[in-house]
Design brief:
Radius of gyration of chain B: 22 Å
Order of helices and strands of chain B: HHHHHHHH
Strand content of chain B: under 5%
Largest interface: A-B, 24 and 15 residues
Oligomer: heterodimer
Largest sheet of chain A: 6 strands, mixed
Mean pLDDT of chain B: 91
Strand content of chain A: 25-35%
Distance between the termini of chain B: 51 Å
Number of helices of chain B: 8
Radius of gyration of chain A: 18 Å
Order of helices and strands of chain A: EEEHEEHEHHHEHEHEEH
Number of strands of chain B: 0
Number of helices of chain A: 8
Chain lengths: 243, 260
């Protein structure tokens, strides 16, 4: 379980997160929804300490991670995987090297065993083996997203974080990402936090939804409980086409 | 009002300057802290050593040959007939291997390696690849910077030794073989004249290692603090070249004063 209390972050005197209180339960898929510039990415990156918040606490299974020195945080970090908005696939490594990097650095598995895991991951995201020798620049956006999810899978995480996983993808790839999020939850990691502005994605994968506006939580609950009015307020300009 | 703005600007720039020094120093400390984990990052160190070698050998070869030839032309042109030719060779030899070759090579490599290093790390930074390393429990300093600094400090002396050898060989080839300006025997005695081992360590090992350290450190520093997209990457690359070039000539003078 992740407990967030009074989490705040300012940039140049402007509040981006204001006293966020939130519990993320085990085995749930929590979607943080909001339009651009509301602090969603700052929030999700604060949860994994990619951004250090100004104040507040974040507890993973009771451990306050913000007070831990970076060295000790690694034990918690190993339970976390993060899929970045732009995928962040290492462009100096090919797909196989990208996928095997984590195990190569953190496990004592033999080359043969690592290769087996790589093949398992690539099969999981429904890519074929030919892609393994390719470099990120040779992949399409959808393929990159699948490689990013496969790389996260190699970490066998307890907590999975997705930052705008459907951003810039076409309909077919969005469906594929939705399917992979479900599949990932079923077979690899049961707790997921997803930041998105995509209401379709929220409907498709969420167990619980948080609406974030101007760095504050304006709603927490099940997707069925979200009124048209709250979505209206959140996006200001009215009901969007993709609701 | 105008005075206030001037003071604010000067104050702001002074703070930025000292912050940059502090941050670069912090990067050095973090790299030293990552050194005990060198076995963990051995693949990255080996890769960087290879990259330094492949990227620099051809350009080092071209530069060193022409630096040697240029020094020879100047040496022979400036010296009068009254100066023995072995002395002229000695002056060419020492000025080339202690000063000319190491500094020209370092400045060119600051442009080539420093800029590419800053651009490479800068684009990794803005495309969240550095953050991706952190989420994979890998230390970006240990994974990206320490191997580059180490490779710079190891490879620049090796490349300089190679360049110095090539420079003097080209001098020998033109002076003794192609033009018969000096006999091979006299050429060799010119090289051996007034021989001091420390001068060779200084020109081939100490100075290039210091320069390699600055090229890698400054390139990494500007790369890691890149922000603002493609424009930011370009700015990081330019800054890396300018600052490392200044540090190379600055320390070239002070190291010579201190050690020679």
């Amino acid at each position: 379980m992740i407990e967030v209390r009074a989490l705040s972050k300012k940039y140049n005197g402007k509040s981006v997160l204001e006293g966020i209180d939130l519990d993320i339960n085990d085995n749930e898929t929590l979607v943080i929804l909001g339009p651009s510039g509301q602090g969603k990415t700052v929030f999700i990156k604060s949860l994994v300490r990619l951004i250090e918040p100004d104040s507040g606490t974040i507890r993973y299974d009771g451990i306050d991670v913000l007070t831990l020195p970076k060295r000790k945080f690694i034990a918690v970090q190993k339970k976390i995987a993060f899929v970045f908005q732009d995928n962040a696939i290492f462009d100096f490594l090919n797909v196989k090297e990208n996928l095997s990097l984590y195990l190569r650095m953190h496990s004592k598995l033999s080359e043969k065993e690592i290769n087996k895991e790589v093949l398992r991951a690539i099969e999981f995201v429904r890519l074929n083996e030919e892609v393994l020798d390719k470099y990120p620049e040779e992949l399409s956006g959808g393929m990159m997203k699948r490689v990013a999810i496969a790389r996260a899978m190699m970490q066998q995480p307890c907590y999975m974080f997705y930052d705008e996983p459907t951003m810039g993808l076409d309909e077919a790839n969005i469906e594929m990402v939705v399917e992979l999020i479900h599949k990932f939850k079923k077979s690899v990691c049961t707790t997921a936090v997803i930041v998105t502005h995509d209401i379709h994605l929220m409907h498709a994968v969420s167990d619980r939804v948080v609406l974030l506006k101007e760095g504050k939580i304006v709603f927490v609950g099940k997707k069925e409980e979200i009124s048209e009015e709250s979505l209206h307020k959140l996006y200001d300009t009215g009901v969007r086409d993709d609701i | 009002m105008q005075t206030k703005i001037i003071f604010e600007n000067v104050g702001g720039r002074t703070v930025d300057f000292f912050t940059a020094i502090y941050e670069a120093w912090q990067l050095v400390i973090d790299s030293i802290k990552a050194l005990p984990h060198i076995w963990f990052y051995r693949r990255q160190v080996a890769e960087q050593i290879y990259v330094f070698l492949v990227k620099t050998l051809p350009i080092a070869a071209v530069i060193s040959i022409f630096v040697g030839l240029g020094a020879m032309i100047q040496g022979t042109y400036q010296s009068s007939a009254l100066i023995p030719r072995t002395y002229v060779i000695n002056v060419i030899f020492k000025s080339t291997i202690i000063e000319l070759c190491p500094i020209i090579l370092s400045l060119v490599l600051a442009g080539k390696l420093g800029a590419s290093l800053a651009a490479e790390l800068g684009s990794m930074k803005i495309s969240e690849q550095v953050e991706a390393l952190e989420t994979m429990s890998l230390d970006p300093v240990g994974f990206l910077i320490m191997p580059r600094i180490l490779a710079g400090m190891i490879m620049l002396p090796i490349i300089t030794i190679f360049a110095n050898f090539l420079a003097m060989f080209s001098v020998f080839f033109i002076a003794s073989i192609a033009t018969d300006w000096i006999s091979p025997k006299e050429f060799l005695s010119g090289l051996q004249m007034n021989y001091r081992a420390f001068e060779f360590y200084f020109g081939n090992l100490i100075k290039p290692a210091v320069n390699g350290f600055f090229i890698a450190l400054i390139g990494s520093y500007f790369g890691m603090r890149t922000h603002g997209g493609a424009l930011g990457v370009g700015r990081a690359a330019t800054n890396a070249v300018v600052v490392s070039a200044i540090l190379i000539v600055f320390f070239d003078y002070y190291l010579a004063r201190l050690l020679l």
